[in-house]
Amino acid sequence: MKHLLPWSPDLTPLMLAPMQGLTNRALRDLFVKWVRPDVVFTEFIRVRPGSKKPFSAVDRLEAASQDEQVPLVVQLIGRDVAGLSASARAAREEGAVHLNINLGCPYGRMSRESAGGALLKDPTGLVERLLAVREQAEASFSVKVRSGYDHPEQIFSLLPVFDQCGVDFLIIHPRTVTQKFGGWADHAISKRLVEATSLPVIVNGDLNTAETGQAVLAQTGGAGLMFGRGAIADPLLFQRMRGLAPAEPDQRGRAEELQFYLVELLERYRLIFQGERQVLDKLKTVMTMMRGDQFFSREIKKMLRVDQIETLQTILLGLH
Ligand SMILES: Cc1cc2nc3c(=O)[nH]c(=O)nc-3n(C[C@H](O)[C@H](O)[C@H](O)COP(=O)(O)O)c2cc1C
């Protein structure tokens, strides 16, 4: 059976990574309208084993696609087979046609039922779980996977599992689960993975500038790239990759980018989050990714310390 990918075959898609606490529907809406990633993902949606309502009201809003032109992939995290199946069905009821399963999250808190990256510890059990989600996906079914649980070569032994389960494409973040976010993504593994499988491989990890993105694309021969923290810090990275914005910002351009970005995000966050405190905290989660900014790291750290949105806006609008 041939499944539909969320991008057309003539495109090298640039995707916005799923990021818990960041890529909610408000942020995705801004990215889609402004810098047009080719594919966007929900934050992971937790499976609730045994629950009569697999999706909360918020999950339902998050899973509903916002823009016909930019496909949304709904990502699930969980271990319980019936729960995965029920959540995948709930996603489909919200109109989701592209489903993804998280095989990478390293944190115990998220994986108290040993989900996410922990599923790599049991490749046999993985089959059942992947098939449960595959069955529900109307178009593509993908996995976002680390290079291994604690061994960076494990990914190669998982390829037959992905084939057997009808996975349509892989997203590789080439760190092990136990490595968490330490060290660097090893794109020599990404390159070998591209060579070892006929499935399209989307390459992810530490692609923080257009130059790095282009170099890793050339090095690995990946079918596309996925940007996480780098894109949250610098949304124009998508346009830089396409040559539609300067490869690197200058100070003035960066000030304008930040002002537009954070003002637009603030407006959207006020619509979906309750109260100034929550809106401010959510905005700060985004700004945490900008601490190392090449022009404004001092001002960003100052904004991270304010306790009023108004004070943040004053500093923001003073950037030049
Ligand atoms: C705050 C944060 C939240 C994340 N949430 C998710 C998630 O919900 N699902 C997922 O598959 N990966 C998640 N990730 C991993 C990213 O999608 C990505 O694989 C990783 O950050 C490496 O890419 P990058 O270097 O471009 O950020 C998260 C990462 C961070 C830092």
Per-chain topology:
Layout: E1 14-16, H1 25-34, E2 39-41, E3 45-46, H2 57-63, E4 72-77, H3 81-93, E5 98-103, H4 123-134, E6 141-148, H5 154-164, E7 169-176, H6 187-196, E8 201-204, H7 210-220, E9 224-227, H8 229-233, H9 237-241, H10 251-272, H11 275-288, H12 297-305, H13 309-317
Parallel strand pairs: 1-2, 1-9, 2-4, 3-4, 4-5, 5-6, 6-7, 7-8, 8-9
Helix pairs in contact: 3-4, 4-5, 10-11, 12-13
General description of the model:
This protein has 320 residues and is of the alpha/beta class. It folds into two domains: 14-241, Aldolase class I (TIM Barrel); 251-317, no CATH class. It has 13 helices and nine strands. The protein has helices at residues 25-34, 57-63, 81-93, 123-134, 154-164, 187-196, 210-220, 229-233, 237-241, 251-272, 275-288, 297-305, 309-317; strands at 14-16, 39-41, 45-46, 72-77, 98-103, 141-148, 169-176, 201-204, 224-227. An eight-stranded parallel β-barrel has the order 1-2-4-5-6-7-8-9, surrounded by five helices. Helix 2 (57-63) links the parallel strand 3 and strand 4 (72-77). The chain starts with 13 loop residues before the first strand and ends with a helix. The model has no long low-confidence stretch (mean pLDDT 95). The structure holds flavin mononucleotide. Flavin mononucleotide (FMN) binds next to helix 8.
Q: What brief labels describe this structure?
A:
binds flavin mononucleotide, 43% helix, alpha/beta, 320 residues, 9 strands, globular, TIM Barrel
